[in-house]
Structures are given as structure tokens and as C-alpha cells.
């Protein structure tokens, strides 16, 4: 089998793994895939539902001091102590319209409304974090597909080389130029390469299925993806120390935790205010049907001061619970700061390493494989050696390493922006402004 035939066979095997693109269809780009980050998705819908519930709680807290209007109708039969002449029992039916409004509750409503607002702010920050996680997940799955395709191409070429060696071995064994043991070794290598190739094709399908799920399009497998240029991989990266203030000021996860802490503090203040009095205004208008009693309060208005003198252990118990929740929220914020600081450092170091030694080593390895491929092609043309297929497969694997590094770098930079809560360009400007002072 010639090299051209092997290449044709490899392309055929790869094409059989997925449906061909319809005429006029374009490969899926990373930009198009990332548009799905804002599209409906279960993770996003859960975060939006949490935010909407928190906003509803805020509206509920803000309505605590709204005007209450009640209509009361009563059918009563009474026996007055001093009945009118000729009556021992009377009908005392009435209709009452009551208006009541809380004028001041000495901090209860204000604290509960502040707690609800902080809770809504926390859920809003969680929603931003959910969108960031969606973008990172889609990006990672997109790169997994590209790497799976490159690896499958390399494994397919290795299998083709092994098959050619085995096929030539059979011809040599038929004329007594190759022992049965050596032929069995060639067949064993071919079978191993075939198993590896089949596993690579399965990973292609699995990677596409995971990408479809990440984009909330389960079952819609993209047959072809466009390899992005990733020009942003060379963006300036500020020093780690310069990124720390931005992390503490803008991190969506930290903002959410700090808002939860503030909500816990305000709820504790609201419980403490349960011992305070309340001041309410009341107005009432009434109409009586055939009332024969002397008292007929057709309307009344007044102020009501309600001062709780004793409530048992209820307030103390609720206060102890809210204090424990407040302390828990404090600990959660402090722990999150440590985790985010460590994550930022590890991410920053990874970017530095990928841009430095890893990228340089992969570039050198690719250059070496390109030279080896050219030499193998020249030897193949003059029929000195037949290792062109192996050299081509090794070149493909070098491409896998090189592109894999760029994908990891792009993910690390995107993860850095998600941690900081601001674009890297903004972080760089802030760093330059600080240096120029």
C-alpha cells in the first residue's frame, strides 16, 4: 500500500466516524459556541430562579409597612346586661372597614429589608458566576473536541503504518523471508494500534456529546470545528501582587459571600429589634343593622403603641441561631478569600509556565518533528526508508502537544478573568496606572 493510499484510507476512516457537513454548512467557531453561555440552560435557570426568589423576598420585606385594609361582616346575637325595654336578646349585625398602618417598628422592617437586599445582591453575583462557569465549560469542551480530532488523526496514521508493515510482512512470510514469530509481532502491533485508533474515535464522539450538552443542545453533535487563532493568549499579564486588590474588590464569588454575610448581620439586627415597640395608626368605619344598643361607634381613629414586655425564650433562641449563622458566614468569607488567593496564584503560575518553558519546549519539538518529516519524505522519495507514515504521525502528535498548550493557556486566561471579575485589559491598565504614580 502506498503512502497516498494510506492517507486516503485514514481520511475515509475519520469521515466515517461522523456525518459529513452538509453543503454550505460552516464549521462551528468558538465565538458561536460561547454565545450559548447566555442561552437557557438548567444551571443558568437555577441561578436565575434563585435571584428571582431573592428579589421577591426583597419586595416582601419592603411591603411590611404597607397599608392594611380589611372588611369585616358579622352576624351576632347578644344579651345585654341592661337591655332596652321589651328586649332580652338583640341582633347586633355589623359591617366594619378597618385601615391599619405601621408607622414605626424601631428597626425591624429596615433590617429585614436590608437583609433581603443583600441576599438579592448575593444571588445576582451568583448569576454572574454561573455565566462565567458556563463560558469556561463550553470553552473546555470545545478544546476537548479539537484535541480529540488531532489525536484521532495521529492514531489513525499509526494504525495505517502498522497495517502496511503487517501486510508487507505477510508477503515476505509467504516467500520464507520472515518468520512466523516476527509476523505475529507485526500483527500484534497492528491490532494494538487499531484498538487505540478505535478508542480515539470513541473519544471524538464523547467529546462532541459533552460539548453539545454544555451548549444545551444534547444530541446535536457538531461534525466540524474551526480551530481558533487564540490571539488573546499573548495579552500582558500583570504581576500577581497587582491582581490581588482586583480579586478582593471584584470577584463575583467573593461579592456573593460578602453579601450573604451582610444579609446574616441584618437578620441578626432584625431579631434583636423584636424587643422594641411598634407604633401603628388605625381607622375604622362601621355600619350596624337594626342595632338597639346605645353605643354606635360609626367611626374611630387612633394610635396604638405595642410594647412587648415578655416573650419567653423565643427571641433569645432566634437571636442565638442568627448569631451562629452570622459567624458561619464570617468564616465562609474568610475561607473563600484564602481559596481565591491560592487559586489566583496557581492560575498565574500556570500561565507563566505555559507561556515560558512549556510553549518553548513544544515549539522546539514541533520544529524538530517538521525537520524529521522532511528528511523522512526525502528518504521515501529515493526509496531509502519507508518510515514516512511514522514521521507524519509523530508530527501530528507534536501538533497535539503544541495546540493543547495553547488551549490550556486560553482556558487559564479565561479562568483568571472569571476569578478577578474584570477583563485582563482592565487589570493591566490598573497595574500600569499604579506603576506610574
Please supply descriptive tags for the structure shown above.
four-stranded antiparallel sheet, Outer membrane efflux proteins (OEP), two-stranded antiparallel ribbon, alpha+beta
Descriptive report:
- This protein is 66% helix and 10% strand.
- With 437 residues, the protein is α+β, with helices and mostly antiparallel strands.
- The protein has one domain (3-14, 28-82, 90-435): Outer membrane efflux proteins (OEP), CATH 1.20.1600.10.
- The strands form two sheets. Strands 1-4-5-6 form a four-stranded antiparallel β-sheet, with no helix packed on it. A two-stranded antiparallel ribbon has the order 2-3.
- Helix 3 (42-62) runs antiparallel to helix 4 (108-174) and helix 4 (108-174) runs antiparallel to helix 7.
Describe the SSE topology.
Layout: H1 3-17, H2 30-34, H3 42-62, E1 68-74, E2 77-78, E3 90-91, E4 93-104, H4 108-174, H5 180-214, H6 240-250, H7 252-272, E5 278-289, E6 299-306, H8 314-381, H9 388-420, H10 424-435
Antiparallel strand pairs: 1-4, 2-3, 4-5, 5-6
Helix pairs in contact: 1-4, 3-4, 4-5, 4-7, 4-9, 6-8, 7-8, 8-9
> What's the total number of strands?
6
Q: Which CATH class applies here? A: Mainly Alpha
Strand content: 5-15%
**Main sheet specs:** 4 strands, antiparallel
Helical content (DSSP H or I, runs of 4+): 55-70%
Give the overall shape.
elongated
How do you describe this structure in short?
By secondary structure, the protein is an alpha+beta fold. Helix content is 66%, strand content 10%.
